[in-house]
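Case study 2.
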Amino acid sequence: MSNPYFRFKQFTVYHDRCAMKVGTDGCLLGAWTPLPPTTTSPLHVLDVGTGSGLIALMLAQRLPNAIIDAIDIDPGAIEQATYNFAQSPWPNRLTAHLCSLQKWQSHLTPSSQWNGLYDLIVSNPPYFINSLPNPDQQRNMARHTDTLSYAELFSCCTQLLSPTGIFSIILPASAEPEILSTLNSKRSTLSECPEAPLNAQLSTLHTTRVFSKPNTPPLRTLMAFSHSSHNSKFNSSLNSKFLILNSQSSSRSPEYTALMQDFYL
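Prediction:
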């Protein structure tokens, strides 16, 4: 039986009651995601599809002045994240909510669809499209875009993001063209909407492509967006456009080791 928890330097994540276990994707996003300008205190952060709460916990460590909302549609995940938050060094700054992103957005912005509330939004979103559903319904719900399409993700996050905020995601490298198409399509739609301000359009701030080993195809893409590609200085643990996880000998690469040095034991 696999270990029910994963221990990091400053916190422990139990993942035996939620569909998606602690994995490289979540660790990468939590360590890589750019930090917003620290002009407000506290910073407000939203973790979409929190699962065990891993990414939210990593951001709580990186942002000592952040108040973090973590949402998920899986009751087991919320139960698990709530427990992990309570056992962490930051229980008063982390809250898990059983709610979809669509409902969360509509609940928080009833008066104006352009009312940005969060300085940072992160998501390790569902990523299987038109593929055979997993027989495990809980895991299927966590991995498929049936409950949250990329278009819905971008629409909701655009409305929830503050004018100087940052939205970052990790996704399969093969999905990058669809993400860019979604972004361009949304920008075109907004240009036809007279009540939409200019800062309602997201632009790509930075992209890092992740490779398992040298001379292999990319596995994942890390992407960060803002309302303007010029209104936020890119402030990430990794500024490179490429990240190789392992050397040819299968040991961790120096770049990946450096990225995770504040978290991995």
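The chain has one domain: 5-259.
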